[in-house]
Amino acid sequence: MNTSVVEVSGEKVKAMWDKRLIEIFCDVCIKEILKENRPGTHFTKDRWMKIMSNFKNETCKAYSQRQLKNKWDALKK
User: Fold this and answer.
1) In a 10 Å sphere around its CB, with 0-12 CB exposed, 13-18 middle and 19+ buried, how is residue 69 labelled?
2) What Rg do the C-alpha atoms of the chain give, in angstroms?
């Protein structure tokens, strides 16, 4: 299981990634790409907010933009 750490209110909170969460996250990102909501090679701040919202709606996990972006960058490698 992969993790990333983000400080929330001075407290470090780990994002725990399992296969199901990674698949949901990839699906959410792919939907944004297919809607042509990614100018160039990066998502805008507004798109990351939408990705965060959609991810939370599907998983009930409120991961931060930084956690999601870190995962996206790691998955691209």
Assistant:
1) middle
2) 12
DSSP β-bridge partners for residue 7: 12
N- to C-terminal Cα distance for the chain? Answer: 17
**How far is it, in rounded angstroms, from Cα 10 to Cα 32?**
31
pTM of the shown model: 0.79
- Spell out the per-residue pLDDT of the chain, length 77, in tens: 555 555 555 556 788 999 999 999 999 999 998 888 787 788 888 999 999 999 999 999 999 999 999 999 999 88
CA distances 32 to 9, 44, 64, 72, Å, are 29, 11, 17, 13
Give the H/E segment covering residue 13.
strand 11-17
